[in-house]
Every structure is written in structure tokens, then in C-alpha cells.
Amino acid sequence: MPMEVFYMTILPFTVIATFFLVMLIAFYVRTIVYGMPDTKRISEKGESVFLGRFFMEYWFWLVVNPIQKIFVNARLSPDIITVVSLFFGIGAGLAFHYGWFALAGWLIFAGGTCDILDGAVARALKTTKKSGAFLDSNVDRFTEIFTFAGLASYYNGTPVAYLVYFAIAGSLMVSYTRARAEALNIDCKIGNMQRPERIVYTGFGAVLSPIVATVLEPGAVKPIYHLMVIALLIIAIFSNTTAIRRFFYTYNKLKGIDNNKEGN
Predict the structure, then answer these.
(1) What total number of domains does the chain contain?
(2) Residue 31 lies in a domain
(3) What CATH number is given to the structural domain containing 218?
(4) Among 12, 54, 160, 224, which residue carries the largest CB count within 10 Å?
């Protein structure tokens, strides 16, 4: 086994996975004794087929809430957290480009956590601003573009590259259709493959891919990373499905408004 695979995949995954598994059991016990936490942001988003509330509450309990307290006490600017998430996204893209999939996965999770923290810290410090929300939404798009660009670079010249293009198109259209709907005063949050789900599936697909590849593609110079391909397939299909659902939902709402105006 190459040392790069061991130090960047097997060793850190084993240590980190053991920690998260132990804490997952602790969280499960905690929910039995005290009940499921009720995080406002999770309640507003709602769970989906691809990401249940239990795991979202677990991540907030273990990672987001403790770090949020540190950042709030330090009065760290939410904009700084947002910019840091961009650098994590750039790093993930570069890691994918060079074939360091496990490292890319860790960076995706770090960036996704920052994406949660910037808004949480802003609300806790009562410093929410429209400029911050604008910065956050744009950084989110750039982060996804950099991440998928790295994947497209790695899979360049293979059929998987087209799957990456399809995935990024769907991911961007999910956000665009919602933004356009909200600009027209239509609340449009339907669909199951939103940004948190895309982060989870891309991150886990990347982190676990090298381990699976040691079994399915031993000795491959440039592995296909089948688990990552499966994650991309899920994201490509359901992000585009979500975008299409949002399009027709918003279009029908607007048609109804137009018809009511004509009727009056």
C-alpha cells in the first residue's frame, strides 16, 4: 500500500471515524435521556430523504455548537469565516485535481462547517447584514465550482467528466431557481438535494473512495474511485430533479398570480 494512501486515508480515517462513532453513540444515548435537540436552523431547513435530522442535530451538537461558542466569545467576524470556507473549497478542488480524494473530503467537511458557522455566529452576535448574506451566497457558489472543477480535472478524458458537468449544472441551478423565486417573492425551498446534502455526499464519497479503491482497484495508477462516481451520480440526478421541481413550482405559482391579476 502506498504511504500516501496510508497517511492521508487509512490512518486519519480510522482515528477520526472511531472518534465520531463513539460520539455518535454518546449522542444517541443523550437523545434517549434528554430527547432530540431542537436546533432552529435545522427545523427551518427540515430533514430530507438524503439527510435525516438525527445526523444534522448530531453534527451541530458535536462540531458546530462548540466551535460557535469559541468564535462568538472571540467575536470573530462572520465574513472571515465565510472567506475561510472559500479557501477550503479551493483546497478541495486542488486536492481532487491531484487525486488526493481523502484530503479533499476532509476539506469539504471543514468548508461545509464554516458555511454553517458564519450565519450562526452572525445571529449570535446580532451582526447579520445583507452584505454578509450576499457574500455567503456568492462564496458558496464559487466553493462548489472550485470543488467540481477539481473533480472534472481529475476525470478529464473519461465519461465520468460528463457526470461531473451534470452535477455542477444541477447544483448551481438548485441555488439559482431558489434565488430567482425569492426575488419574485416566492418561497421555494422544495427538493431533497440541497447544499447540505451535496456537501455530505461529496465529502463522504471523497473520504471513503481511496479505501474502497484499495479493494476494487488495487495497484491502479489513477483509480476511478467508484464510490465517488456513485456519489456524483446521486448528486447529478437529484440536484437536477430538485432544480426542475423548483422551476415548475415557481412557474406555476407565478402563473397563478398572473391569472388572478388578469381576472381582477
Answers:
(1) 1
(2) no
(3) 1.20.120.1760
(4) 160
